[in-house]
């Protein structure tokens, strides 16, 4: 949506950084105010417009979303995030180091790697671009 349309506010409300002044927000038919904030946030994965990548391999950046993830699970998440093909085009594939703050990959590639990391964590709610 356009700038100022309330995207960031909606994300903040969904994660219960604050509650609405009027009305309510529901998750599976239950008012968010009735749900534990800790539990709710454990069900949500957020990929911001400027995702954070660690100066490690693509594999490590994706698997950070779920420790102990297998290579098959990492590749499945990458395929769902539409990044497997470009990863395989790197000479070192999933072992490619993304550099400090993801400096060795493009902005779009950073976002897709971050989406794969979010997907592998199996969230009930995936928020993009907050």
Number of domains: 2
Order of helices and strands: HEEHEHHHHE
The total strand number stands at: 4
Overall pLDDT score: 91
Strand order of the largest sheet: 1-2
- Overall radius of gyration: 16 Å
Termini gap: 11 Å
Proportion in β-strands: 5-15%
Which regions are unreliable across 5 or more consecutive residues at pLDDT < 50?
none
Count of DSSP-assigned helices: 6
Q: Any idea what the shape is?
A: elongated
Strand count, sense and barrel status of the largest sheet are:
2 strands, antiparallel
Query: Percent helix among the residues?
Result: 25-40%
User: Structural class of the secondary elements?
Assistant: mainly alpha
GO cellular component, one term: mitochondrial inner membrane
GO molecular function: ABC-type oligopeptide transporter activity; ATP binding; ATP hydrolysis activity
Domain ABC transporter: 1-128
InterPro entries: ABC_transporter-like_ATP-bd, P-loop_NTPase, Type_1_exporter
Structural summary, described in words:
Strand 1 (26-27) and strand 2 form a beta hairpin. The protein is mainly alpha-helical and 130 residues long. 38% of the residues lie in helices and 9% in strands. It has two domains: 7-42, no CATH class; 58-121, no CATH class. The protein has a two-stranded antiparallel sheet with strand order 1-2. The chain has a two-stranded parallel ribbon with strand order 3-4. The chain has helices at residues 7-14, 37-42, 58-63, 71-80, 84-89, 107-120, and strands at residues 26-27, 30-31, 44-47, 125-128. The longest helix has 14 residues, at 107-120.
């Amino acid at each position: 949506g356009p700038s100022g349309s309330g995207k960031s506010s909606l994300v903040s409300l969904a994660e219960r950084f604050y509650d609405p002044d009027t009305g309510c927000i529901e998750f599976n038919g239950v008012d968010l105010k009735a749900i534990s904030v800790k539990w709710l946030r454990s069900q949500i994965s957020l990929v911001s417009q400027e995702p954070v990548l660690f100066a490690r391999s693509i594999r490590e950046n994706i698997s950070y979303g779920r420790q102990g993830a297998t290579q098959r699970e990492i590749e499945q998440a990458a395929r769902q995030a539409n990044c497997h093909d470009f990863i395989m085009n790197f000479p070192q594939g999933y072992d490619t180091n993304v550099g400090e703050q993801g400096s060795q990959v493009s902005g779009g590639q950073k976002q897709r790697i971050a989406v794969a990391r979010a997907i592998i964590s199996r969230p009930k709610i995936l928020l993009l671009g907050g």
